[in-house]
């Protein structure tokens, strides 16, 4: 145990002793017993209340509050200790004492870590992870397991019966929302289901369910067995010409990564200029290791009577947001594969073949890491030893730190942050949080590190006190007494206890692993343009925020120190624009209705995950607050979620515009108001999200346009005497923004007459008449009379309206 952890734990014990035992002793010595010597009579009570208080009643109230607070805190501590002693995974909640109970839980957790981390039982109980499925065509719907709704059923009750946890009912709703039911009905409301309806059950429900995680007498989880059997028809071993052995699911991941890389090259391809001509050229050849893996994939599928998935099928799988549940580690003598669960993994590899197997495990997990699904954390020295120098490679999910200390600190931070998140949101485990909001990034985290005395003490606590609940795990390359150890021989046979004994570990060479990582890395952007015109280099955004969202005018997303705007999909830009108009947040249903008004039950999790991933990739942002999703924060409850833009990372011009208007309205003097309106007019660039056509935006578009025209008119009114030319320019901008408002034309005519530009004034009047004529309406008599008076007027100042 490190000095910091020891000090924190001892401090927690001291606070608990002082609060539970020391406080009542101190209070008793100062104020005496909280129990009265005798019960007061009615007369005594009446006299006390009616008489003047000399401080006695006030002190009695304070004494009562102090004893009551102590009793509530002591009850919270007792509940937390009792829950740990009985091994409860969800602590009972005391009504009205949420904050106090959270404090008690934090202190009790810290105290238990100091009392002693339990000794890990390497193979004390088996936990079966869902199978790692090869990327092959999906099973037909008629082969899926379904449930027939009975009278009195609810999604809560069905989830409890079929999924083992009633709080997993959102998974059933997500899978069946909008589905057709008998007699022409559709499943449109999770609160209303009818007898006879058939509901699809999640894929994971058909896998072998995980056994309960055993706990020690002090309430900590024992380290589970790290393997999970996979059916032979789902995954198997594939041999490569180099002698390497990989899983079918692994080689399918290589095919997916290659298809994604090829798709990105084609998507961003720029056709050549007309002067260059057209030639037929082949796509770049994949690296030999990648080519051999793809051939092995095609051959393995052919042996099963299956065809190679198309690029579109592979790409769809590559954009999944499901967190990987496990990774293949070895094959049995019958060639079927065994996988290990990622959450709670506590595995050490030793022997001459240990590094070869570690490369397979790490790259296999990175194949499933896109869209913030998984992360592999390891120090640079170990990364260089396993893969060679990786300075120029940016692989999604691969976090390389400069030292082992930094890697362990990140691991501890993730564990503590997620532990607090589970406590605050009253969730059983990380899977429940993911089910509540699949769009919030809570990636599986794997620490890869070499054991040492300092490392052992730092990671032992998290691995043995809730790694499975928090979705983290560790792979250690060396002797590790606190988990399952597998010795990998030269021929990659595994020596250990349990079903992994006698199996052959999957393994790849350093060169193959480096080639696979390069395939997982996004291709560089194109460097040529179709028509190379001389253009000035665009200025890079250099604001204080990582991202600047511009919505007044054409919508653009600028990234700091990046000259070109970030290109987002229509739905991603639509989502960001909608959230920007509601800085205090919107619910999941509000966002889904705005984005997909005609599609019942459409979820928004894929959109949010891909949007966050695009912003993280473009900015290189490293999320320091693990309890909050980056860029788009999510506050989840049991029933819904509220999404809002992170104001610390993203600035929006609409917000700045509104702030400038508020500043102008509250300005104490003329100069301050002009300065505030100047800031506002600098942001008046046109319609809200010009060119972004969507149903929800219509209600917001004209009000913002109208306010811009009003702002420009107010600004012109205030500066007419000191800067008439600038005022005239502001009025012309207002007319361009809102050409229907006749008063703006009249202000322009008056100012032009004042500046002795009568020809311009006549042209402005004609512009108004032509605009009304194009709309099919005549210019009103009152307006014509006003124009006539202005044009005949030879006064010395412009008219104000």
From TrEMBL:
Chain segments annotated as transmembrane: 12-31, 64-83, 103-121
Pfam families assigned to the protein according to its UniProt record, in alphabetical order: BTAD, LysM
InterPro entries the UniProt entry points to: AfsR-DnrI-RedD_regulator, BTAD, LysM, LysM_dom_sf, TPR-like_helical_dom_sf, WH-like_DNA-bd_sf
Domain LysM: 145-201
The organism's place on the tree of life at top rank: Bacteria
Residues of the signal peptide: none
Entry-linked SUPFAM superfamilies: TPR-like
Keywords, alphabetical: Membrane, Transmembrane, Transmembrane helix
PANTHER family: TRANSCRIPTIONAL REGULATOR REDD-RELATED (PTHR35807)
Protein known as: LysM domain-containing protein
Organism: Spongiactinospora rosea
């Amino acid at each position: 145990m490190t000095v910091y952890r020891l000090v924190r734990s001892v401090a927690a014990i001291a606070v608990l002793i002082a609060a539970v035992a020391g406080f009542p002793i101190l209070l008793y010595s100062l104020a005496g017993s909280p129990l009265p010597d005798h019960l007061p009579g009615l007369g005594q009570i009446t006299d006390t209340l009616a008489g003047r208080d000399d401080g006695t009643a006030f002190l009695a109230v304070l004494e009562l509050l102090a004893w009551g607070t102590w009793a509530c805190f002591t009850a919270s501590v007792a509940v937390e200790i009792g829950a740990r002693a009985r091994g409860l995974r969800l602590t009972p909640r005391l009504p009205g004492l949420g904050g106090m109970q959270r404090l008690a839980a934090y202190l009790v957790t810290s105290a238990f870590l100091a009392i002693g981390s339990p000794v890990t039982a390497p193979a004390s109980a088996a936990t079966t992870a869902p199978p790692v499925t090869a990327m092959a065509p999906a099973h037909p719907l008629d082969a899926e397991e379904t449930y027939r709704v009975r009278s009195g059923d609810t999604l809560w009750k069905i989830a409890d019966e079929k999924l083992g946890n009633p709080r997993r009912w959102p998974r059933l709703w997500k899978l069946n929302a909008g589905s057709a039911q008998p007699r022409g009905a559709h499943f449109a409301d999770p609160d209303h289901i009818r007898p006879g309806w058939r509901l699809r059950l999640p894929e994971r429900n058909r896998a072998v369910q995980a056994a309960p995680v055993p706990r020690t007498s002090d309430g900590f989880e024992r380290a589970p067995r790290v393997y999970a059997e996979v059916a032979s028809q789902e995954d198997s071993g594939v041999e490569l010409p180099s002698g390497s052995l990989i899983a079918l699911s692994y080689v399918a991941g290589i095919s997916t990564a290659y298809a994604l890389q090829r798709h990105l090259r084609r998507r961003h391809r720029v056709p050549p200029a007309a002067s260059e001509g057209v030639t037929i050229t082949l796509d770049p050849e994949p690296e030999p290791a990648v080519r051999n893996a793809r051939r092995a994939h095609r051959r393995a599928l052919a042996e099963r009577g299956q065809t190679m998935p198309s690029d579109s099928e592979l790409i769809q799988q590559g954009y999944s947001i499901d967190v990987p549940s496990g990774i293949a580690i070895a094959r049995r003598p019958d060639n079927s594969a065994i996988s290990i669960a990622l959450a709670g993994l506590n595995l050490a590899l030793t022997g001459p073949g240990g590094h070869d197997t570690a490369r397979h495990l790490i790259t296999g997990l990175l194949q499933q890491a896109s869209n913030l699904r998984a992360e592999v954390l390891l120090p640079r020295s170990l990364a260089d030893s396993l893969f060679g120098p990786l300075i120029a490679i940016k692989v999604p999910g691969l976090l390389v730190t400069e030292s082992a200390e930094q890697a362990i600190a990140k691991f501890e931070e993730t564990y503590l942050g997620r532990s607090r998140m589970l406590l605050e949101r009253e969730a059983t485990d990380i899977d429940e949080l993911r089910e509540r909001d699949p769009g919030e990034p809570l990636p599986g985290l794997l620490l890869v590190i070499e054991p040492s005395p300092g490392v052992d003490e730092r990671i032992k606590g998290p691995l043995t006190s809730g790694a499975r609940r928090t979705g983290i795990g560790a792979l250690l390359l060396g002797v590790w007494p606190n988990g399952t150890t597998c010795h990998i021989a030269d021929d990659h046979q595994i020596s250990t206890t349990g079903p992994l004994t006698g199996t052959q570990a999957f393994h790849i060479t350093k060169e193959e692993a480096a080639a696979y990582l390069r395939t997982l890395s996004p291709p560089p952007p194109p460097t040529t343009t179709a028509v190379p015109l001389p253009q000035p280099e665009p200025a890079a955004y250099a604001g204080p925020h990582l991202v600047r969202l511009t919505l007044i005018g054409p919508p653009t997303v600028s990234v700091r120190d990046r000259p070109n705007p970030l290109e987002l999909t229509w739905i991603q830009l639509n989502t960001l624009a909608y959230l920007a108009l509601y800085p205090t947040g919107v619910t999941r249903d509000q966002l889904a209705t705005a984005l997909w008004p005609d599609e019942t039950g459409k979820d928004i999790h894929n959109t949010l995950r891909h949007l966050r991933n695009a912003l993280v990739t473009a900015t290189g942002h490293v999320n320091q607050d693990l309890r909050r999703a980056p860029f788009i924060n999510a506050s989840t409850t049991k029933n819904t979620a509220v999404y809002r833009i992170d104001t610390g990372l993203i600035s929006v011009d609409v917000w700045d515009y509104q702030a400038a208007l508020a500043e102008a309205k509250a300005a104490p003097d003329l100069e301050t108001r002009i300065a505030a309106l100047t800031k506002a007019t600098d942001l008046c660039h046109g319609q809200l999200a010009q060119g972004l056509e969507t149903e929800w935006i219509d209600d917001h578009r004209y009000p913002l346009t109208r306010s811009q025209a009003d702002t420009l008119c107010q600004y012109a009114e205030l500066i007419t005497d000191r800067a008439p030319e600038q005022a005239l320019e502001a009025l012309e901008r207002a007319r361009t923004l809102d050409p229907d408002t006749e008063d703006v034309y009249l202000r322009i005519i008056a100012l032009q007459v004042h500046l002795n530009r009568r020809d311009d004034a006549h042209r402005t009047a004609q512009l108004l008449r032509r605009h009304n004529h194009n709309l099919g309406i005549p210019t009103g008599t009152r307006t014509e009379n006003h124009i006539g008076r202005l044009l005949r007027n030879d006064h010395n100042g412009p008219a104000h309206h």
